[in-house]
């Protein structure tokens, strides 16, 4: 054991024991002071060696050697060597590993995608190039691993599946070796394990020899274990009931562990993958034991020795008083702002030194007065915006917050400090060097309501990845009210709304899945979230965090419409859940989607006259629209001439007189009186589904490149491609499939489209008086090379009806 590089601090008792065993291995059962002194530097780290006189260490080791059982029994040196190696193996399992270089191809977010996998007797550990831990998994937390040799473009790969439902696809030239090694450990541990969990309930009233158990019971194998190697039965004791009996192996899951598994592992084994993810996040919120509450609060003192800058010289008055001297430590609370950052790394860069200001944190906590009144969001922006961009500043923020929480006797300040730390832990994790210190800081302050929640949030953000934007005002306002669970209103096209739980680390994809599940939709695919601000509707990227995307949109709007005198202005917005892609929509297949979304999103486009529709079709559709709106109320039939625009497309209003429309629509409505409202919606959708323009996004433009086409045309974008439509007749002039579109370019009042080869292809030039916002053509509809070039489109400015008609194709923000 090279004690100059001890991975962790050892107690004096452990060091003396190591020294005594080392002397026994070197010199046997007879030693004297001179021999011990020769090997002291091989046994004791320099820092701890200097803490006592050498004579004291010699005396302690000589005494321990003389009294040790191995000396008394004169054990072989080899046996004592094995004892020493066992001690090291338990203290530093990482040193007893096989190491493999891998690249993460897919899976939960990690700080690095290229790292080292260490496999040892405890489990698997992911390490970066400086041997900092990225992730640790014990064998009970691993449910399987398999190799995939078919991914030729990325080499061999193996997929590691965890108990929390996570799947890490790792590529490496050693993937087969990694998989075989993990399988060897799992199978070996299962053969030697004495622990299993019941997979379902078993009642054995007829045969007392068969053990009864409930799902999730922990079963402990007896010494004889297998009754017969080929029988498939074993003997076990139910820990819950204390009874012993025979158990059929197919009814239990043997846990790959030689020690009793934790209650968390047992409960996770009984859950679905989704439930496991939720439970693993909430596991850190268990109630603390009384003994834990008595633990002395951990500070950053130890961390500061290596990572903090040298403190400024103390004044004479501070140096005299012990109480003042403690308060002047860099890692403890201070009433004066720091003149420079805490961390050495942040001090070396002049730009970072200016960004790492201490005063915003003190202002948020109420420790420092502010000359001007700033909102809480303005202060959190000052704290976090730079840290999100510069990773070096992240540890600086963590350290400054924990500093202000250490030895702070102001209850108001402490409460605000924990609220700030709660926001911080949801944005980004501390570095690996600070992580264990930050975790200890929180775990030893369990009396604080937010301490364990902050610890849990660090684990969550390490798994899911750091945020890209500072906290949204909704998050800041929530935690200021000590509310850690945030609900957000989601609107639907049928003018209904519901609230959904949205966490700091909830991604839009997950929220969409939750909404679809609650609404009982057959699938969430094709749906997305949109933010409506004034007359603009902006699609949210499903891979983004919900609050990141929301913050990006509201900040963009605030920059374009600043308040008076440059003051920050609150942005009113609504979040809508709507269908974005109409790729596989068949009316009647998903009744909930038809009723809540499809009908209400297609109706406005139909009424604007974008589709080619005959008078007879318009009459039938108007009858269905009336049915949806008024159901069985025939008294409103008399008002049809007044509400004709809400029943008939714009371009057909003058095809016949109002009275004739009324007569025809009344007759059509009578045919549908027996239908329910939802049946009328589906009938409407089935009629327009036959049209080639169903599910399109429409834009009115002026084209200047095709002399054979009218100057003003409609553009329709749907799963077939981009169609040019005659504005008056609604005839489709031409269709450009997506695989023929090689390039897009756009400006504030125009966009250009290249068809065919980039060099010799034809260009479609379009102008519009509407504002143009860039977005992406759906990735599903373009070749890979086209995705890089694609950008569109012009947004219609129809205010109140915009939500129902505008479709943002794909995952980029306007």
Automatic annotation (TrEMBL):
Belongs to the TRAFAC class myosin-kinesin ATPase superfamily. Myosin family. It comes from Accipiter nisus. It is found in: Cytoplasm. Residues 333-480 form the MyTH4 domain. Keywords: Actin-binding, Cytoplasm, Repeat. Gene3D superfamilies: 1.20.80.10, MyTH4 domain (1.25.40.530), Phosphatidylinositol 3-kinase Catalytic Subunit, Chain A, domain 1 (3.10.20.90), Pleckstrin-homology domain (PH domain)/Phosphotyrosine-binding domain (PTB) (2.30.29.30), SH3 Domains (2.30.30.40). The keyword Cytoplasm applies. This is Myosin VIIB. Residues 486-797 form the FERM domain. GO terms for molecular function: actin binding; ATP binding. One of its GO terms (cellular component) is cytoskeleton.
């Amino acid at each position: 054991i090279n004690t100059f590089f001890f991975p962790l601090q050892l107690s004096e008792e452990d060091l003396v024991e190591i020294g005594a065993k080392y002397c026994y291995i070197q010199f046997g059962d007879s030693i004297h002071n001179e021999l011990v002194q020769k090997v002291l530097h091989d046994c004791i780290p320099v820092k701890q060696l200097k803490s006592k006189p050498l004579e004291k260490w010699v005396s302690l080791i000589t005494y321990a050697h003389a009294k040790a059982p191995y000396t008394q029994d004169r054990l072989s040196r080899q046996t004592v060597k094995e004892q020493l190696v066992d001690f090291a193996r338990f203290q530093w399992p990482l040193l007893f590993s096989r190491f493999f270089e891998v690249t993460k191809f897919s899976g939960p977010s990690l700080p690095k995608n290229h790292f080292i996998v260490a496999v040892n007797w405890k489990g698997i550990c992911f390490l970066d190039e400086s041997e900092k831990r990225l992730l640790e998994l014990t064998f009970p937390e691993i449910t399987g691993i398999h190799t995939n040799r078919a991914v030729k473009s990325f080499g061999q790969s193996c997929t590691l599946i965890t108990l929390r439902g996570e799947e890490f696809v790792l590529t490496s030239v050693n993937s087969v070796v990694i998989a075989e090694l993990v399988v060897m450990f799992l199978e070996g541990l299962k053969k030697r394990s004495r622990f299993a969990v019941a997979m379902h309930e078993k009642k054995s009233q007829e045969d007392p020899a068969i053990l009864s158990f409930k799902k999730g019971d922990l079963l402990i194998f007896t010494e004889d274990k297998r009754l017969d190697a080929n029988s498939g039965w074993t003997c076990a004791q139910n820990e819950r009931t204390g009874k012993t009996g025979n158990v059929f192996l197919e009814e239990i899951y043997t846990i790959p562990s030689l020690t009793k598994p934790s209650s968390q592992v047992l409960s996770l084994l009984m859950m679905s993958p989704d439930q496991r993810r939720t439970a693993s996040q909430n596991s850190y919120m268990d109630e603390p034991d009384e003994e834990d509450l008595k633990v002395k609060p951990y500070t950053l003192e130890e961390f500061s020795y290596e990572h903090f800058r040298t403190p400024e010289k103390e004044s004479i008055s501070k140096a005299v008083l012990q109480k003042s001297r403690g308060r002047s430590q860099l890692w403890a609370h201070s009433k004066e702002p720091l003149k420079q950052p805490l961390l050495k790394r942040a001090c070396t860069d002049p730009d970072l030194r200016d960004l790492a200001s201490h005063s915003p944190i003190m202002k948020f906590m109420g420790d420092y007065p502010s000359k001007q009144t700033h909102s809480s969001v303005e202060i959190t922006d000052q704290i976090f915006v730079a840290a999100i961009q510069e990773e070096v500043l992240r540890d600086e923020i963590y350290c400054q917050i924990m500093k202000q929480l250490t030895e702070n006797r102001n209850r108001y300040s402490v409460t605000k400090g924990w609220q700030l730390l709660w926001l911080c832990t949801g944005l980004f994790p501390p570095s690996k060097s600070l992580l264990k210190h930050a975790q200890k800081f929180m775990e030893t302050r369990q009396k604080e309501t937010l301490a364990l929640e902050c610890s849990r949030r660090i684990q969550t953000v390490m798994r899911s990845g750091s945020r890209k934007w500072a906290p949204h005002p909704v998050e800041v306002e929530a935690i200021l009210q000590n509310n850690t669970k945030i609900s957000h209103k989601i609107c639907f096209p049928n003018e209904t709304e519901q609230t959904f739980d949205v966490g700091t680390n909830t991604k839009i994809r997950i929220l969409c899945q939750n909404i679809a599940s609650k609404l009982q939709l057959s699938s969430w695919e094709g749906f997305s979230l949109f933010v409506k601000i004034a007359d603009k509707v902006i699609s949210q990227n499903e891979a983004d965090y919900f609050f990141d995307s929301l913050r990006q949109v509201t900040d963009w709007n605030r920059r374009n419409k600043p308040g008076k005198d440059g003051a920050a202005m609150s942005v009113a917005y609504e979040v809508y859940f709507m269908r974005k892609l109409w790729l596989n929509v068949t009316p009647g297949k998903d009744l909930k989607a038809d009723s809540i979304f499809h009908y209400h999103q297609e109706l406005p486009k139909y009424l604007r006259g974008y589709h080619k529709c005959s008078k007879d079709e318009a009459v039938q559709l108007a009858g269905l629209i009336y049915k949806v709106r008024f159901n069985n109320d025939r008294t409103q039939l008399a008002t049809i001439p007044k509400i004709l625009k809400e029943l008939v497309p714009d371009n057909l209003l003058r095809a016949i007189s109002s009275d004739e429309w009324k007569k025809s629509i009344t007759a059509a409505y009578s045919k549908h009186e027996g239908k329910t409202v939802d049946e009328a919606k589906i009938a409407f959708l089935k009629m327009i589904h036959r049209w080639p323009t169903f599910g399109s996004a429409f834009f009115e433009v002026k084209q200047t490149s095709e002399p054979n086409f009218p100057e003003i045309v409609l553009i329709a974008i749907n799963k077939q491609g981009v169609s040019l439509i005659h504005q008056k007749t609604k005839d489709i002039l031409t269709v450009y499939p997506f695989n023929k579109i090689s390039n897009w370019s756009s400006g504030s009042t125009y966009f250009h489209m290249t068809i065919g080869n980039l060099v010799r292809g034809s260009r479609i030039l379009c102008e519009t008086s509407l504002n143009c916002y860039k977005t992406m053509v759906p990735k599903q509809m373009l070749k890979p090379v086209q995705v890089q070039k694609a950008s569109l489109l012009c947004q219609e400015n129809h205010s109140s009806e915009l939500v129902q008609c505008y479709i943002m194709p794909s995952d980029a923000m306007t």
